[in-house]
Design a protein that fits this description.
Layout: H1 11-23, H2 45-51, H3 79-82, H4 97-105, H5 107-110, H6 112-115, H7 151-170, H8 181-195, H9 201-215, H10 225-240, H11 246-252, H12 259-272, H13 283-293, H14 298-315, H15 324-338, H16 345-349, H17 352-358, H18 364-379, H19 386-391, H20 398-418
Helix pairs in contact: 8-9, 9-10, 10-12, 13-14, 13-15, 14-15, 14-18, 15-17, 15-18, 18-20
């Protein structure tokens, strides 16, 4: 490369960088074993002995090393799925008051990842365009990729197109699971309650993808389904962060399985699905399209779209046949319609991601209608109401707004059909 053709950095940027270095006196890449920064008299006898020795460049402290097992003891026959379930009654999937208090008391552990993003180094280096108030939704891999000021155009032009072109090229639908709709809804409702109002909706969508995928190729007894669903949820959490402990999942399942069974189920599911890469889910598109429509107040649109998405996925398993981008586009379109943001409809039609998703289906109106029907079902006499419980709280009260408008639209459509 010709160094003479490389343009110099702006003087303003250099001065800013020098100032940042002066303010931060921490030595880069300072190791844990370095004793130079300790105050005099603070080291132990062992530390003093170590400091008098010349450490080898390749010396490794064994306490920071994890050793793997020497034998390959894997469940190649999927015994986790075939084992008996100790004749326990697993047909009741619920969270008792005791368990809810347990979850509440473990909020600090459960939300540690999200509350410490800046401390653990995963926060943005540049301030991103965040909502005006806290949203119950968590970030996903496409969240806040567009930044403020002069960085916005650069990020959009260089990365967004490539990112979504990749997602649109690798996404695929899931086969319809071989399980009754009501049993599947029961499982997803249970997972939604565990995930809670502070949970990442992408976790539920990913867990649903794993559950539908494994149920489309395997059959299970009724008493095994809760164990399989918990394992799918656990895998999804590990992909997106903020992982609940195995003990917490066991308590939420009323002790219908033990830790060893959960580990076996997780391993068996991954083997059966041949260790798939992280699946593309509707949330990957919903977050960006919401921001694209209204970067200053995208939270209301996003929450409404996620509510519609989760209701649809829980009630109607035929949505498994649709691509994630198509589901996301239908959710965003329905959200604008039901929130009364008709002025943004024309802007949505110009969104490149929305247009690409719309081109992948010939029946967008039918999918939108399916989502609105699912919302009405969940709000009416349906047994499983976790979406209403999660999205029906303040300050947005999105669930109530969407449900009311969904019923009003149904009446209006009925009148138009009769006329």
């Amino acid at each position: 490369m010709d160094k003479e053709n490389i343009s110099a950095l702006p003087k303003k940027l250099l001065l800013k960088k020098i100032q940042e270095v002066r303010e931060d006196t921490r030595i880069p890449l300072k190791t844990i074993n370095s004793l130079s920064g300790l105050p005099s008299g603070s080291s132990t006898e062992h530390d003093k002995a170590v400091s008098n020795k010349t450490r080898s460049t390749y010396e490794i402290d064994s306490k920071y090393v994890t050793f793997g097992q020497r034998n390959e003891d894997l469940d190649w026959d999927y015994k986790a799925i075939k084992d008996e379930a100790n004749n326990k009654d697993c047909s009741i999937i619920s969270i008792s008051d005791e368990e809810e208090s347990f979850i509440e008391s473990n909020k600090k552990e459960y939300n540690y990842f999200n509350e410490n993003k800046q401390k653990n180094g995963v926060g943005e280096a540049i301030r991103a365009a965040t909502p005006l108030h806290k949203s119950p939704l968590e970030p996903n891999r496409c969240y806040k990729i567009c930044l403020e000021e002069s960085y916005t155009n650069c990020i959009e032009s260089e990365y967004v197109n490539d990112l979504f072109a990749h997602l649109l090229s690798i996404e695929r639908p899931v086969s319809v699971p071989r399980i009754s709709s009501i049993t599947r809804a029961r499982l997803l409702n249970w997972l939604l309650r565990i995930n809670g109002s502070d949970g990442n909706p992408a976790v539920i969508q990913t867990a649903s993808w794993y559950l539908d995928s494994v149920l489309s190729v395997c059959r299970f007894r009724l008493e095994q389904l809760q164990q399989v669903a918990a394992a799918c949820f656990w895998i999804a959490q590990k992909l997106h962060g903020n992982v609940a402990s195995a003990s917490m999942l066991i308590i939420c399942a009323n002790g219908t399985f033990i830790k060893t069974q959960l580990l076996w189920a997780e391993e068996a599911i991954l083997k059966k699905l041949k260790f798939p890469s992280q699946p593309v889910v509707p949330q990957d598109y919903i977050t960006y399209m919401s921001w694209w429509l209204d970067d200053a107040h995208s939270d209301e649109i996003e929450i409404a779209a996620v509510f519609l998405c989760l209701c649809g996925l829980m009630v109607n398993k035929t949505l498994c046949n649709e691509l994630p981008s198509v589901i996301a586009a239908a959710c965003i379109q329905d959200a604008l319609l039901l929130l009364g943001k008709r002025d943004l409809m024309l802007r949505l039609q110009t969104c490149p991601v929305f247009k690409a998703a719309k081109n992948k289906t010939t029946d967008m109106c039918s999918i939108c209608s399916t989502l609105r029907t699912a919302v009405r079902i969940v709000s009416n006499s349906y047994e499983y109401k976790a979406p209403m419980e999660i999205f029906g709280t303040g300050p947005h009260f999105i669930a109530q707004k969407i449900v009311k408008c969904a019923y009003d639209l149904e009446v209006l459509e009925g009148q138009c059909a009769r006329n």
